[in-house]
Amino acid sequence: MEIWISPACSKCRGAIGLLDAEGAEYTVRRYLEDVPGEDGIRDVLGRLSLEPWDITRLQEAAAKELGMQEWPRDAGARDRWVRALAGHPELIQRPIITADDGTALVARTEEAVRDALSR
C-alpha cells in the first residue's frame, strides 16, 4: 500500500498514525515533492473510481487563479483537469491510499483508513 501525503496536513498525519498503530506496511509518497504525472493521476483516478474534479481542492489559491470552479465537469474537460492536477499537485485531495487490492481511496477519515487496511 502507498499513501500520498503532505507532511503539513493534519489528516495525513492522522492517517499515518493509524497505519502505524495498526502495524501496516506502506510506502509514503510526498506527492508535492514526488509529483505524479498525468498518467499517474489517471491511474489513481481509475483506482478511486472518481473524476479529477472529485479530488480537486478548489479552495486552494491555484484553483481560484485558474478559475477551476467554473470549468466544465464532463468527459471533454477531463484532460484539462488532469493537466491542472499534474501541474499544481497542491490541488490534489489528500491523503490518498492505494490499497494492495488495486483500489484506492481518499483517506480523510479514520473509517476510510480502516477500509484501506481491510482491502
TrEMBL record:
InterPro entries: Arsenate_reductase-like, Thioredoxin-like_sf. Gene3D superfamilies: Glutaredoxin. SUPFAM superfamilies: Thioredoxin-like. It holds the Pfam family ArsC. It comes from the Bacteria. Transmembrane segments: none annotated. Belongs to the ArsC family. This is Arsenate reductase. It comes from Streptomyces ruber.
